[in-house]
């Protein structure tokens, strides 16, 4: 990335950039954003609906498929399957890579399957999503992109942001959906990979842990996890009162959606309840600028920060359930993080990698280059997408290596 581009990017991130694209898909019964009630009977990963979509350089199909939430309830999830127009030139059959998006927001129009097609609410983050997808398509891979669970599919409730089980399920099931989608020319049992950064990094990492038990038939050759928020307890302290406090708000919305029995909202004062309602309608940059430097102690009835509650029942159990690093991935994994990450401390990602190493996993740790201490998390995406594509090329060729555990 050139110096001039970095300067333009940094300047762009200091102002609110929310441009509304073309109108969202109409809410008719054939739309992938409208689900049936009850859901049709089927297996995880079955495609319920599909519609042609648009994306330069690829045949793009929006899909609705079956997956499961953190309570093992079957749900309808939207996403996109993209197949490059260029023929596959690598060995064997064209691989499918599940792309786990990074934080895009909570509002119905924020879903990547919409913004990648030029619909919904687009901002600078939407461009980064497209950049990551382009890197994977440029390597010749088919891309299976999940929207995760969220309000973009009618009746699905709030997005369970960075909830380990639901995000892992939706990532693994979008691969199954791509394998079963008619007319793509993709193999039903070929090689697959997974890649994600930030929220997507934790979703990819969670999928790496669950693949062997939840989707044992998938031939997962490698997983790329960048800047993963693997420990929610640590993030509840590092994000509180900072520039990206809105992401902590998203995490609380996610907990409330995934664990309603915890009665999280009982802790909120009127200001906290108001923030909760407003954050549910935002895409990423709106949340960053709207809730910047918000102290969570100003949002609770007792005037305590959120971190004080997460160490107590029932939230301590929820935090433990969502910690990543407790299960050995069955495939090689590349973990990257900027040492100067200004959103997710590098120590969080490194501890996840070390935990996996301690269980005997094949883990490669790599520092992402840091161009500036400002916006280093966002800027890391530009390198992460290239690194992910190149490393997965090697993994598909049987050249993932033996990792560097014990040396980081």
From TrEMBL:
Keyword Signal: yes
GO biological process terms, semicolon-separated: lipid catabolic process
Origin: domain of life: Bacteria
Gene Ontology molecular function, alphabetical: triacylglycerol lipase activity
UniProt keyword annotation of Signal present: yes
Organism for this UniProt entry: Amycolatopsis japonica
Source organism phylogeny: Bacteria, Bacillati, Actinomycetota, Actinomycetes, Pseudonocardiales
Record-given protein name: Conserved putative secreted protein
SUPFAM superfamilies attached to this UniProt entry: alpha/beta-Hydrolases (SSF53474)
């Amino acid at each position: 990335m050139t110096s001039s581009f970095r300067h333009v990017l940094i300047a762009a991130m200091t102002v609110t950039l929310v441009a509304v694209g073309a109108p969202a898909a109409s809410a008719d019964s054939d739309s992938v954003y409208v689900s049936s009630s009850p859901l049709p009977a089927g297996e995880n990963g079955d495609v319920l609906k599909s519609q042609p979509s648009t994306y330069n350089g690829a045949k793009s199909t929006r899909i609705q498929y079956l997956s499961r939430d953190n309570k093992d309830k079957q749900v309808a999830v939207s996403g996109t399957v993209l197949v490059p127009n260029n023929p596959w030139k690598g060995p064997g059959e064209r691989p499918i890579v599940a792309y786990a998006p990074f934080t895009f927001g909570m509002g119905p129009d924020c879903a990547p399957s919409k913004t990648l097609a030029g619909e919904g609410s687009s901002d600078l983050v939407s461009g980064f999503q497209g950049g990551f997808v382009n890197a994977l398509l440029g390597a010749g891979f088919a891309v299976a992109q999940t929207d995760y669970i969220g309000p973009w599919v009618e009746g699905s409730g709030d997005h369970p942001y960075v909830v380990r089980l639901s995000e892992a399920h939706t990532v693994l099931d979008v691969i199954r959906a791509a394998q079963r989608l008619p007319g793509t020319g993709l193999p039903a049992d070929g090689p697959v990979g997974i890649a994600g950064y930030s929220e997507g990094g934790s979703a990819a990492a969670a999928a790496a842990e669950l693949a062997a038990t939840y989707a044992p038939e998938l031939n997962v050759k490698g997983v790329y996890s960048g800047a993963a928020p693997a420990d929610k307890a640590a993030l509840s302290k590092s994000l509180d009162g900072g520039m990206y406090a809105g992401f902590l708000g998203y995490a609380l919305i996610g907990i409330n959606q995934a664990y309603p029995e915890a009665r999280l909202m009982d802790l909120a004062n009127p200001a906290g309840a108001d923030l909760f309602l407003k954050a549910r309608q935002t895409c990423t940059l709106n949340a960053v600028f709207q809730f910047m430097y918000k102290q969570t102690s100003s949002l609770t009835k007792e005037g305590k920060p959120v971190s004080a509650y997460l160490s107590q029942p029932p939230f301590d159990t929820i935090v433990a359930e969502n910690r990543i690093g407790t299960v050995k991935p069955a495939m090689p994994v590349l973990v990257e993080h900027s040492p100067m990450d200004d959103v997710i401390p590098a120590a969080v990602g490194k501890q996840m990698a070390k935990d996996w190493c301690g269980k005997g996993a094949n883990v490669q740790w790599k520092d992402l280059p840091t161009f500036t201490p400002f916006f280093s998390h966002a800027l890391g995406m530009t390198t992460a997408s290239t690194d992910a594509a190149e490393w997965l090329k090697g993994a598909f060729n049987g050249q993932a290596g033996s990792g560097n555990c014990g040396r980081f």
